[in-house]
Amino acid sequence: MGADKKAQWSRKRLEESEYRLTKPRRAILDVLLHTDEHLSAEEIYQRVYSDYPAIGLTTVYRTLELFVQIGIVLRFDFGDGRARFELSVGPEVQGSHHHHLICTNCNKIIDYTDFIEDEIELLKKTEKGLEALHNFKINNHIIAFYGLCEDCRNENKEKNNEGMRDV
Amino acid sequence: MGADKKAQWSRKRLEESEYRLTKPRRAILDVLLHTDEHLSAEEIYQRVYSDYPAIGLTTVYRTLELFVQIGIVLRFDFGDGRARFELSVGPEVQGSHHHHLICTNCNKIIDYTDFIEDEIELLKKTEKGLEALHNFKINNHIIAFYGLCEDCRNENKEKNNEGMRDV
DNA sequence: CTTGCTGCAAAGTGTTTGCATACAT
DNA sequence: ATGTATGCAAACACTTTGCAGCAAG
Questions:
Q1: Do B96 and B89 meet the contact criterion of CB atoms below 8 Å apart?
Q2: Do A69 and B144 touch (CB under 8 A)?
Q3: CA of B127 to nearest chain A CA: how many angstroms apart?
Q4: Is the pLDDT of residue A1 over 70?
Q5: Phi, psi torsion values for A65, nearest 5 degrees
Q6: B128 vs B105: which has the higher pLDDT
Q7: Closest by CA position to B140, among listed B66, B73, B61
Q8: CA gyration radius for chain B?
Q9: pLDDT number for residue B104
Q10: Best of A142, A148, A152 to disrupt the B interface by mutation (most B CBs within 10 Å)?
């Protein structure tokens, strides 16, 4: 959904920023543009490394921080001990907003867009209400469901996953 | 809101578990019962330490993991690099379910119960739909809003917090 | 008594920082 | 030319693991 728009938007935003257009930055953006996974810094590093071995992990961290700053990347903590990153779509591109379904056994992450419309509508109302009530300026929200994915259900590990919850 | 019920429920659940009722475990549960904050392992350790200096940080970690297992504690990752814990209410006690409002500047966490009813209703429907669609067994969910709290709004740091989102 | 639980120290993991060099503008 | 960005190594912060001694049942 709008991979090109996404690319255009984020590249433009990067070019228009105060920051220098370096090879590592372009390479990292490219990796993010060509995946729909939620990659960790290490994973991004490895992918960049494969055709740009001069890259350093530190640079990946710093670049991701920068991308989050200028708003082209979103950072998630799903509770498995490492941060994960995905491209933001920006306010211009509608329809690719999604939430997450996370398997507490294998850490698989599923994006879903089903039922999103109702969720977003409710969230907007809630946001307004909370802003007024708590004098809070809300910039973002997260919704995620935790449970067992199809595969792990079948394996039917007797692990107790109740009570596990991560924001 | 049912602090006693909470205490009863979690103590009972601990006693009925296979696990031994040790002094550290009781002490840690007590700390959790007497706060409404979202404490980190380290913070819990410090509070236990003040009247039970024999406690070790390792035990706190292991005990919290255990409590999560038996379902009396919930674990959250708000994206500030440390896990936070709060007592679960258990399915028996209704009305104390809440979601979170998180300040991306000072990391303050506000529990809110406002608008919760509508949220829960929608979440239930969504859960059902997602379970059917993705063959997923959902055990839990999270909702959190990120933004600037009243105090940090006023200080009006020019830090750009857009695009910051966790989980 | 027996086995699980504990504390300490050490190891692990993901992330950040200091600094000299390299590069974009 | 000038100051930002980079990579390396070291430092950090949180969490987990190994192990010998302790204590709950």
A1: yes
A2: no
A3: 8
A4: no
A5: -60, -45
A6: B128
A7: B73
A8: 18
A9: 85
A10: A142
- In the structure, how far is the CA atom of residue B97 from the C1' atom of nucleotide D14, in angstroms? 28
Residue A32, C-beta contacts closer than 8 angstroms, at least 6 positions apart: A39, A44, A67, A73, A85, A86, A87
The packing angle between helices B116-134 and A116-134, to 10°, is 150
H/E stretch holding B85 = strand B83-87
> Quick one: tokens of B44?
């819990």
Contact A109, A38 (CB under 8 A): yes
Q: Where are the alpha helices (DSSP H) in A34-167?
A: 41-51, 57-69, 116-134, 150-155
Of A88, A147, A167, the CB nearest to B137: A147
CB B33 within 8 A of CB B87: yes
- What size, in residues, is chain B? 167
- Please report how many Cα atoms fall inside a 13 Å half-sphere around the Cα of residue A102, on the Cβ side: 25
As a whole number, mean pLDDT of residues A13-22 equals 94
Pairing assessment for the beta strands B99-103 and B109-112 based on DSSP bridges:
antiparallel
In sequence order, the 6+-apart residues with CB closer than 8 A to the CB of B59 are: B24
Contact between A122 and B119 (Cβ < 8 Å) = yes
Q: How many CB pairs below 8 A link A and B?
A: 214
Residue A47 has pLDDT above 70, yes or no: yes
- Cα torsion at B27, B28, B29, B34 (round to 10°)? 90
> Predicted confidence band at B3 (pLDDT cuts at 50, 70, 90)?
low
Would you state the structure tokens that stand for residue B96, as one six-digit string? 């104390």
Measured to protein CB atoms, the chain C nucleotides within 7 Å are 4-10, 13-18, 23-25
Question: Among residues A81, A87, A144, A107, which one has the least CA distance to residue B163?
Answer: A87
